[in-house]
Amino acid sequence: MAPSLDDESSLFNFVVRDGNGVKGIVDSGISKVPRPYIQPAAEQINKKNASKCEIPPIDLSKLDGPEHDEVANQIVRAAETLGFFQVVNHGVPIQLLDTLKQTAHNFFGLPAERKAVYRKEVSPSPLVKYGTSFVPEKEKALEWKDYISMAYTNENEALQQWPMECRDVALQYLKTSHEMVKKLLDALMANLGVELDDSNIDAFIGKKMVNMNFYPTCPNPELTVGVGRHSDMGTLTILLQDGIGGLYVKVPEDIDMEKKGEWVEIPPIPGALVINIGDMLQIWSNGRYKSAEHRVRTTSTKSRVSIPIFTSPQATQKVAPLPQVVEKDGMAHYREFLFSDYMNSFFGNAHDGKKSLDFAKVNFS
Fold this sequence. Notes:
The mean pLDDT is 91. 42% of the residues are buried. The chain has one domain (21-28, 41-359): B-lactam Antibiotic, Isopenicillin N Synthase, Chain (Jelly Rolls), CATH 2.60.120.330. Strands 2-3-11-8-13-6-5-4 form an 8-stranded mixed β-sheet. Strands 1-10-9-12-7 form a 5-stranded mixed β-sheet, with no helix packed on it. It has helices spanning 8-17, 21-27, 68-80, 94-108, 112-116, 155-161, 167-190, 202-205, 279-284, 323-329, 339-347, and strands at 51-52, 58-59, 84-88, 128-132, 146-152, 207-215, 227-230, 236-241, 247-250, 263-265, 273-277, 294-296, 304-312, 318-319, 337-338. The N and C termini lie far apart (56 Å). The chain has 11 helices and 15 strands. It is an alpha+beta fold. The longest helix has 24 residues, at 167-190. 29% of the residues lie in helices and 19% in strands.
């Protein structure tokens, strides 16, 4: 049964409690966006005003040859400026990427009751959560997105607890991308004077999670957002986007680049993966690397999927700017904290640009 679009509590129950998600609203035959999803004018995305990011993708296969230093420098430069870049020849099979996109469509095409079993309040596994928007109870306007989130502890638990409809392909994506993540982190850490090896890599990427995001078609995409302005809280995010597009990144004000302060679209490149720097890398680098502020637009033409892998420290890990960087800089711009405390702050608030970093900033005033 379709929800009453005018009654916020009935709409909320239909979408969130009953597991229908935004897809359920769209499937009910709406012709306009329900009021709770209409963003304030300042948050709406004007597609006509945004330009595309023209930076070519980085060829990761060259890291293994004579051009290693040049490619490592490209990775570092991207981390120091936009905080976003695309990679090709990354070692994740293209056929797997195609299967992932189809699997995401298939999962969100399941009946609502099959997805609703994984809602946070009732999920049979603490590793799996199906939801909609980001923090619906804290948001002034809801995001036009449904998702399934799968935390990775070990392969056995993933095989037993992740949804069977997407378990195998999500696990393969996680495993085949691990070498690429190590290479990227290796280049970024080497530039900060840290050598990565098996003994310390978990301190940076010991926690991993695969999400599948679904952005249903929207009758008034100019009024909504798929995801609001935010930076990712972890170390590195690896993102597979489909061919539809709609991912926008804000060019930081404090770097030497064109279009400072503007939003640029990260155009889909067939076979490429999008990499973005998270808050933890900004903190470890004492602000040299920029966690990227980004958001997602909705579309009226076709439902969009994206599949991110989030890597971060374990919850019990202490995080602070690296001592060798602080020594060079003369002072630490961030304080030490437990990653679990950062997570609680991050998930306790609605998306609001890069305000998540305020939790760790040292106040010099």
